[in-house]
Write a structure and sequence with these properties.
By secondary structure, this protein is α+β, with helices and mostly antiparallel strands. It contains 13 helices and 16 strands. The chain is about 30% helix and about 25% strand.
Length: about 425
Amino acid sequence: MAGTRAPAQIQTRSKYHAADILLRLLKSRRRPASAQAEPAPLSGIALAPAKQREVQFADFESVARLKERWGLAKDSLENWDRLWRQNPAMAAAKSQPSMGWVLETAHGIVGYQGNVPMLYQFEGRAMIAATAAGLVIEPAYRTRCITLLASFFRQRDIDLFVITHSTASVVSQSKALHARPLPHPDYDKVLFWILDVHQFARVLAAKFGLGSGMEAVGAFLASSALRLDTLCRGPQGLPISKITEIEVNDIGDEFEALWRRKLGEVPRLLADRSPASLRWHFTLPGSCSTVAVLCCHRFQRLAGYAVVLHAIDRETGLRRSMLADILVEQDDPDVTEALLDAAYANAVASGGHLFEVVGLPGHIRQILMRWKPYVRTYPTDPLIYKTTDEALARALEDENAWYAGPFDGDATLLP
């Protein structure tokens, strides 16, 4: 879901124009707009009426074609089975959650809003959250976006509604339906580091539309400037803790023990990180993305873990490595920094061109800011939420009640 409210602002400590220009051009992830401003249908041309109904499994092919037509990642029937049949939240829900809603004409599906239930914990209470996923609408029907959003927010037996990384138009319409932005002043700031200067500069030259000869010259000039600038960025010291890497399927009992200890700490709104939920969340059938699970042990028990998601940007071809999740007992700063260092090193070893960090609490971002990242600002609120529980709504007005990051919403949930 793309679309902008204003040009993205880029903050860097770089004095090199090549870096500044390139960072302004790059996008974090292409999301075709579901409510982006579009030309109105030509006068005199009747628009086929569209009816709204709930999604069924039989809609997969039609929805997949609609999503691909407007630039969303290719989906699979296996992933739909994972999202709505293997989802741990389905068994915990009081009533059967909807898979989402479609707009359908006599000619086929012209709009889609997915709905994925997720388990959350807050102050000893288990909750069901609804996550909006894959919103896409044909341009001529985008005035109907508000009806899809209204159905999403109107669900019964849902404690929390979450929409992430959407368009300015969707955010605005959601706020009209009483959704709120996350109360975190820096959540819209994406921290990132350039790992492969040459490939990054190549994208700069290609974005300017240079010919092959000029592209090579542009890439050389940009890479020379960037290489000097990137030397002072990233982790500078040596890790003090040993980190091991495991497969997603190997997430087991020690993760359960860590999760239970974490729930006994300062109350925060936490998406469920039991082993079953972690394995479900990071198993992406049909995806070309890969996942690394990094573990830090202290005194022969798991003290924390980090998950790195490696993916290829479909627009630029850049290999992006994202810190998809991190959880540390008692927020121990040494363990946290060791895992962040290992995540950065894993991104480098994977051949990544960029390493990105989105959201996460302030104590984690403070460590990362010492690494002198580039900082890119989202053009709109990256996470909006709603709850009909008045006590929960009051609690969530405090930024310290949140532990928000890519694990929330659909950023790491879809292929």
